Amino acid sequence: MPFPITRMRRLRRNETLRRMVRETAVTVDDLIMPYFVRPGTGIKKEIVSMPGNFQWSPDTLAEEAKELEDLGVPSLILFGIPDEKDAQGSQAYAPDSVICQTIELIKETCPSLCVITDVCLCEYTDHGHCGIIGENRDGNPDVDNDLTLEALIRESLAHVNAGADMVAPSDMMDGRIGEIRMALDDEGYSDVPIMAYSAKFASAFYGPFRDAAESPPQFGDRSSYQMDSANLKEAMREIEEDIEEGADIIMVKPALPYLDVIRWAADNVDVPIAAYSVSGEVAMIKAAAANGWIEEKRAAMESLLSIKRAGASLILTYWAKDMAKWLG
Ligand code: PBG
Fold this sequence. Notes:
Layout: H1 15-21, E1 31-37, E2 44-46, E3 54-56, H2 58-70, E4 75-80, H3 98-109, E5 114-119, E6 133-135, E7 141-143, H4 145-161, E8 166-169, H5 176-186, E9 195-200, H6 207-212, H7 233-245, E10 249-253, H8 259-268, E11 273-277, H9 279-290, H10 296-310, E12 314-317, H11 320-327
Parallel strand pairs: 1-3, 1-4, 1-12, 4-5, 5-8, 9-10, 10-11, 11-12
Antiparallel strand pairs: 2-3, 6-7
Bound molecules: ligand PBG.
């Protein structure tokens, strides 16, 4: 029934009505907060390209995690920055790695927090790539998929042995979800879920993170393993494959430039969908806010809402802690 019978503005007349017909809400339950941790004690060092975010040491992060838990945020994801990097990324799977130490401390202080770990080699390799370097058929260095799987399995097991509640492989190697699932099951960890970074695009929006994690690739780029921004069908296949291999949660990353991928997943698969609102998405808004061009809180809330509206049920976001405060 068209105007004048129908007047869309009727239900926008005041906040009470708007509240009653609001279709989507971000809640604190949806949020996962990323943290960067490095060896040492008493460290809380602000990351220049990510204002309001810090590199922590295990002890200071355990205190921070308590605050996060008190604010009602259910989960965090950990990224490690080792003192020593090598070609094999061996600190990724060392049983006493900075991540393992941190997991143990957090599980002591906050037993109910869901501690997720990012499983990848890029923060741990001296070349900065997400896997072990081999040679491609042209004789040039390239990440070797199957060699990398072994390291990812060891890394996952190290994290879970230390008490991680969930692992999140972000490397984009083929077959890693199935291999990690089987290895966890073999070791008696059949109840540990895997959140797969399934559709992870080679994105300019990771720029600030690479500063934070001190992990820019020293040669080449990540486009032989991360996805091409132009491809939706390929993202569908990545998501479907990861679910077949046993992913409990699938992720799309970055979030804002890929809302169509999130929407496709929400309409077509039945596992929970996570979206990673990455460092560059935050940086744009923070930088504009610092110039007085945009209101950080409103722009952040609108971004996260759009990700939820697109169909994500979990959002990894550097605003998780702020958001918990804003939501009250
Ligand atoms: C790789 C990884 C990256 C991010 C999360 N995991 C960086 C990359 O692929 O270069 C980016 C997160 C962000 O930008 O906030 N382990």
